[in-house]
Write a structure and sequence with these properties.
The structure is a single chain. With 378 residues, the protein is of the alpha/beta class. It folds into two domains: 95 residues, no CATH class; 275 residues, Purple Acid Phosphatase, chain A, domain 2 (4-Layer Sandwich), CATH 3.60.21. Helix content is 31%, strand content 21%. The strands form three sheets. The chain has a seven-stranded mixed β-sheet with strand order 1-2-15-3-4-5-6, with helices on one face. The radius of gyration is 23 Å and the shape is globular.
């Protein structure tokens, strides 16, 4: 059996289905459920179900082509369902990649490494012995020039600095972030945007008090909350950010004007736990629309609201990426589609940043980043 190509093909198909289900279900715990427990429970369930069904339907098959004709009808139905699932995944990804996605007019201007506290040494140092570098303490600033369809010339040159997924806590405390925050402030954009998952636990909202104080920008400093923020205490964090002059947007819109043209800065409530009334965003009217959302899965709302640009985090860029394969685990209802970078469907561009922190504390081929965007009309 182990020398049959069909055996390894079958295992590969099961693995793809496992990843498909894990990404879409295992990382979305209902309110009140611990994320680790929820994720472990679902992953274990998937493996047990796959193993059980394989034993029930295929225990008498040696995975040789010749043996297929002797399998009972129920086993053939089971194998056909696996094949159809894989075929559907391939077709769905192909339609998305070849038909729905459109070119994005973007140019990387520069990448600058940030100075960090040398006292912080990344965990899992043993990985260096096999040539793998844990990049969690190698943050950088990446600047892009992005051209948007329908973007008014009056708002040409608008600069945004996006800070996402700090995951303030044990591995990313004040002593680590202090110097980094000072460098971020020196970027001096028109607008600062924090796109969620600032903290990990309830105590972090108090512990990080004062860390984000002093951010200033001509058009304001804004934040939306992420799933970890809600799990740790959204009210306490919102209060702390407000005291530091950071406007937390909860399905709200802020308008700014320049030379007679209006910019709408729209902020989404958290996708899983937040406010479901999106009418203010959907009814917003402006010449230029910027949409802040923690989850890339909010892309449906970005497109429906007519946003020119949506900026998101949450996925950490895939966090643990492999050569040629990219990431396997991406906590999104869309799987790996919107893991990292720029995407365009219709006239709405989605940008997903790697973020600067992470959870768990391991990054491979996926450096933490602060992003500066320079927006221009296409």
């Amino acid at each position: 059996m182990f020398f049959q190509p069909l055996f390894w093909t079958y295992l590969f198909f099961l693995f793809l289905i496992f990843i498909f289900l894990t990404n879409r279900i295992s990382f979305h715990p209902p309110r009140g459920w611990g994320e680790v427990f929820w994720t472990f429970s679902w992953c274990s369930s998937f493996l047990l179900v796959q193993t059980g069904l394989s034993v029930i339907y295929l225990k008498n098959w040696d995975f040789a082509w010749s043996g297929l004709s002797f399998l009972p009808f129920s086993s053939l139905i089971f194998l056909s369902s696996i094949a159809l699932w894989i075929a559907w995944m391939v077709v769905d990804h192909g339609v998305w990649k070849l038909i729905r996605l459109q070119p994005v007019q973007v140019k990387k201007i520069k990448t600058v490494k940030l100075r960090t506290n040398p006292k912080f040494v990344p965990p899992f140092g043993c990985l260096k012995k096999v040539g793998i570098t844990n990049q969690i303490y190698l943050p950088q600033v990446v600047e892009y020039e992005l051209k948007l369809e329908g973007w008014p010339k009056e708002w040409s040159g608008l600069t945004i600095v996006q800070v996402s997924d700090l995951h303030y806590g044990k591995f990313f405390p004040t002593a680590y972030y202090d110097g980094i925050i000072r460098q971020i402030k020196q970027l001096k954009p028109d607008l600062f945007a924090f796109t969620g998952d600032l903290i990990n636990s309830k105590k972090d909202a108090l512990a990080m008090k004062g860390l984000l104080k002093g951010f200033k920008a001509p058009l304001g400093v804004y934040a939306v909350l992420g799933n970890h923020d809600h799990g740790a205490g959204a009210e306490a964090l919102t209060k702390a950010l407000t005291q530091e002059s950071i406007r937390v947007l909860d399905n709200e819109v802020v308008y700014r004007k320049r030379k007679g043209k209006t910019l709408a800065i729209m902020g989404a409530s958290e996708l899983w736990y937040g406010n479901r009334d999106r009418s203010i965003i959907l009814n917003s009217k402006a010449d230029a629309k910027l949409f802040l959302a923690h989850h890339p899965d909010h892309y449906f709302l970005g497109k429906k609201s007519g946003a020119h640009l949506q900026i998101s985090g949450h996925t950490h860029g895939g966090q643990i990426r492999f050569p040629f394969l990219g990431p396997l685990i991406v906590p999104s209802n869309q799987g790996r589609k919107y893991a990292q970078g720029f995407y365009r469907e219709k006239n709405t561009v989605l940008f997903v940043t790697n973020g600067i922190g992470c959870y768990p504390p391991l990054r491979t081929l996926c450096a933490p980043e602060i992003v500066k965007l320079v927006l221009k009309p296409a």
